[in-house]
Amino acid sequence: MASTDTNTVTNTIYTPKQQRILLIASLLVLGGFIIAGLQGYVSAFFGAGILYVIFRPVFYGLVYKKKWNRTWVTSGIMFFSLFVIILPFLVLSLLLIDRIQYYSQHTDQILGLVKQAEQLTGFKITSQQNIQRMLQQGGTFASRQLPSLAGGALDFLVIIGLMLFTLFYMFSDEETFLSGLRKHLPFKRDTLRELGDQLKNNVNANVLGQGIVSFVQGVLTGLTLMVFGVPDAAFWGTVAFFLAFIPVLGTPLVWAPAGLIQLSQGNTTDGVGILLVGAIVITNIDNLLRIMLAKRMGDVHPLVTLAGIVIGVPIFGILGLVIGPTILSFFIVLMQVFARENQESRIEAAQDEATVRERAEEKAERTVR
Length: 369
Fold this sequence. Notes:
By secondary structure, this protein is mostly helical. The protein has 14 helices and no strands. The chain has three domains: 37 residues; 128 residues, no CATH class; 182 residues. α3 packs antiparallel against α4, α9 runs antiparallel to α10 and α9 runs antiparallel to α12. It is elongated, with a radius of gyration of 28 Å. It is a multi-pass membrane protein.
């Protein structure tokens, strides 16, 4: 039996260390192929993770505390996510992309507004050719970043189906899912708990908090433009909703030009009304809501949000408005955890070294005696 074990060991040309290295390399290569294959659908997994964090308190309260049926609760969460969050967001995106493409193909209206703005301010913004080129480039960029049923209905259905399937698994087999995370993530238990709290805080701030603020601002902007007679007010309200995710700039990019254009057309009352409502009501409601929601849902620095949007939109499209800041916030948390654990490791190593030195000194003293 011993000779058989020896032959088994000597039949390979690799040492145990080389075998471990090759195993890790094989895992990395296969993982790379998997990631490359799922590259177009990675937003589905991020979306499922975000929805899981959002609805986890509801699921815990109904299943673990009230003892409701797990499958029924999970199904209810999925239907609520689909019809209250996903589909409305999709409808807004489709409305936005449709109007952007329209304006990119019919530039005369935009050129007329720019000319009026130049006459009002006395400054020449740019040439008409540049404006036409920018509008066409903007339409092309929006087509790439926003979902389009005409351009990729199958991809859209796959992403939504994959996200809902992943969400169903995360809730229906939650114990296995969480056990797998704890087993494979290279963090201590306290660190995992801290990361979970930070993830919940970031998702609440970037998704729930920012989503509520953006929705309120978008509705207020659309209603304001409608009241003061701006055409296509619903479209510009939708634009304001998405722009409201951008810190500082946000909705002023919509209502400020609208007010100036009304002034340039001689509609002084409407123009001044739009500017006053935008500056006093819409801007202040943004600040007020952020302060109120920060206490309940967590707060994220505007610079982190802005940088996250810049990083996330090119990768995840319109979903990058919420996924990008969440990933960047989590990266910062991981860096903080790494720095703290590194510091703790240094302290422990210094203490161990001091203990060894003391024991060596005590042993030397006993030897001398």
